[in-house]
Write a structure and sequence with these properties.
With about 290 residues, the protein is mostly beta strands. It has 2 helices and 25 strands. A hairpin with a 6-residue loop joins strand 22 and strand 23. The N and C termini lie far apart (about 40 Å).
């Protein structure tokens, strides 16, 4: 498989380009003729700077985990940092080559490098005239229980107003408090507004739909739905990327320690052969 192989999914109004060799990430998303993702001119930038382009898949965990040994379900997890803040961030599959099945589903397998379980992950992309559906799975391929989480991390560009339909929030993703609090101030996004610079937080127990986004200059509106037993939205505006992240996930940051301590927002403990599912639906209109 060539490193620059592209899969393009099209409908009358939506076009999405996926790069199997670079973690099955969305390289480009064009809706009604408008590019909505932070897309590099050179696809190899996804490999050089993997966390700040397009929309990348996260598994077997999302967001930040503190590095260093921790025992979970009788096995020792000892991850190495892969981010400037010293955490192990966004899982493993973002950097893995994925294969494309005859059915069009993208798949990969992983484990190791401090994660003592084997797993399989899949992505199915379905496009309609007004809808993009991204169906993800994570399956425990080990013979013992494995913690797991799923998510996708898009960087949306443009002048965006948004509403996150959640009354609770973990105010910071690093560090992350054990319990959420009532959304307030810049973190109360239940009414349409622009996300403040510096926000980097997680909203659990979001409603359906989870998020509304508007691009006023393009005349576009998007409804984001998160189909999961444990829907979370992570959102961030670092202020230095000309983009904001709005991420459907199945758990909160520090999911391993949450699992070990019985805190809410933990990774899901999957039995051998069990599959975790997350479907993110983006519905667009003018």
């Amino acid at each position: 498989m060539a490193a620059t192989e592209e899969l393009t999914f099209r409908s009358a109004n939506i076009e999405a380009t996926v790069l199997p060799a670079y973690g099955a990430r969305l390289h480009r998303l064009r809706v009604f003729g408008h590019d909505l993702l932070r897309t590099p001119s050179d696809p190899r930038d996804h490999e050089r700077d993997p966390f700040f382009w397009g929309a990348f898949i996260m598994a077997p965990w999302c967001n930040r985990l503190t590095t260093g040994p921790i025992e979970i379900s009788g096995r020792m997890v000892d991850l190495q940092p892969n981010f400037a803040d010293g955490t192990a961030i966004h899982g493993q599959v973002y950097a893995s080559p994925w294969r494309v099945g005859d059915d069009g589903q993208l798949r990969t397998e992983g484990g190791g490098d401090g994660w003592p379980w084997r797993y399989g992950a899949s992505l199915t992309v379905v496009i309609g005239d007004h809808q993009l559906r991204l169906a993800q799975t994570l399956t425990n391929l080990s013979d013992v229980p494995m913690p797991g989480g799923l998510g996708i991390h898009p960087w949306f560009v443009g002048h965006i107003r948004m509403a996150i339909h959640g009354a609770l929030v973990y105010p910071s993703n690093h560090p992350s408090d054990p319990e959420p609090i009532a959304a307030n101030g810049d973190l109360d996004l239940r009414q349409p507004t622009e996300m403040a610079v510096g926000v980097d937080a997680t909203w659990p127990q979001v409603s359906d739909p989870a998020v509304d986004m508007w691009w006023p200059e393009a005349g576009l509106h998007c409804v984001m739905r998160v189909l999961s037993a444990t829907p979370h939205i992570v959102a961030a505006n670092p202020g230095n990327r000309a983009a904001i992240a709005v991420e459907p996930e199945t758990h909160a940051p520090q999911g391993l320690r949450r699992l070990a301590h019985g805190s809410p927002g933990a990774l899901t403990l999957l039995a051998s052969g069990e599959t975790l599912r997350l479907t993110s639906v983006l519905e667009f209109d003018r």
